Amino acid sequence: MTTIAVLGAGKIGEALLSGLCSAGRAREDLLFTERHPERAAELTERYGVGHVGLAEAVRRAEVLIVAVKPQDIDAVLAELAEHITERKLVVSLCAGLPTALFERTLPRGTAVVRVMPNTPMLVGEAMAAVSGGAHAAESDLALVEELLASVGKVVRVPEGQQDAVTALSGSGPAYFFYLVEAMIDAGILLGIPRATAAELIVQSAVGAAAMLRDGDGHPVMLREAVTSPAGTTIAGIRELEKHGVRAALIDAIEAARNRSVELGAAHEGD
């Protein structure tokens, strides 16, 4: 079996560890690095996965999954470059960072695959997009897709689309959580207890998502099916349009894309 090391056990790193464990991957084939001892002990107890230093991770693992914050990447790459002495597959989960950044720093010919995942991998419902770097073979991309398929869905995209993917699906769950939060607050305003409002809205979101995923209707068709003439739904839709909710969402996603571009540009001169 391929040994996988997750470098950085923050939210997305833990989500991947959790998803891989839940999908049945053997604990002895998984490793992780974490600079905070208390956090490391907590994750080892929770998942039964070994905590190691970065040098040990490089020595033992064939696949190195980099899941650190973009601002921490320089130190991690410097240490990786020091310890990689044979071919490894490096998988970046770092928002905004291009494969070229890794290729400039790591030993010549290192295979790099860029991935934009999202946090629903915690429940096996991730959406991830993968792009190969200059030295990534088809077998490398296939392996990454296989790993990620165990925690959700995977698509392959040109790397030039990764900043847009980051804005859409990488940040996307936060937008849905934001909308659900607002709808629960509206339920409370209308006199419904918080727990009941949450149950109503969350299950409505789950059902709507299932209809979008499993049905063959366009979102417009599904919305129109709920919207009766002179009914309650169209009254609500009118208010959403009046307040520019559609335009605000488009602007938010564009802003997230622009920030992803900025994160990558900050390392262009490295």
From TrEMBL:
Main location: cytoplasm
Top-level EC class: oxidoreductase
A family per Pfam: P5CR_dimer
Sequence ranges assigned to domain Pyrroline-5-carboxylate reductase dimerisation in this UniProt record: 159-263
EC number: 1.5.1.2
The keyword Plastid is annotated on this UniProt entry: no
Subcellular location: Cytoplasm
GO molecular function terms listed in the Swiss-Prot or TrEMBL record: pyrroline-5-carboxylate reductase activity
Residues annotated as signal peptide: none
Pathway(s) the chain acts in: Amino-acid biosynthesis; L-proline biosynthesis; L-proline from L-glutamate 5-semialdehyde: step 1/1
Keyword Oxidoreductase among UniProt keywords: yes
Transmembrane segments: none
Highest taxon of the lineage: Bacteria
Pyrroline-5-carboxylate reductase catalytic N-terminal domain residues: 3-96
InterPro entries for the chain: 6-PGluconate_DH-like_C_sf, NAD(P)-bd_dom_sf, P5C_Rdtase_cat_N, P5CR-like_CS, P5CR_dimer, Pyrroline-COOH_reductase
Catalyzed reaction equations: L-proline + NADP(+) = (S)-1-pyrroline-5-carboxylate + NADPH + 2 H(+); L-proline + NAD(+) = (S)-1-pyrroline-5-carboxylate + NADH + 2 H(+)
Annotated keywords: Amino-acid biosynthesis, Cytoplasm, NADP, Oxidoreductase, Proline biosynthesis
Family in the record: Belongs to the pyrroline-5-carboxylate reductase family.
PANTHER family for the chain: PYRROLINE-5-CARBOXYLATE REDUCTASE, PYRROLINE-5-CARBOXYLATE REDUCTASE 3
Reported function: Catalyzes the reduction of 1-pyrroline-5-carboxylate (PCA) to L-proline.
HAMAP family reported for this sequence: P5C_reductase (MF_01925)
UniProt-recorded name of the protein: Pyrroline-5-carboxylate reductase
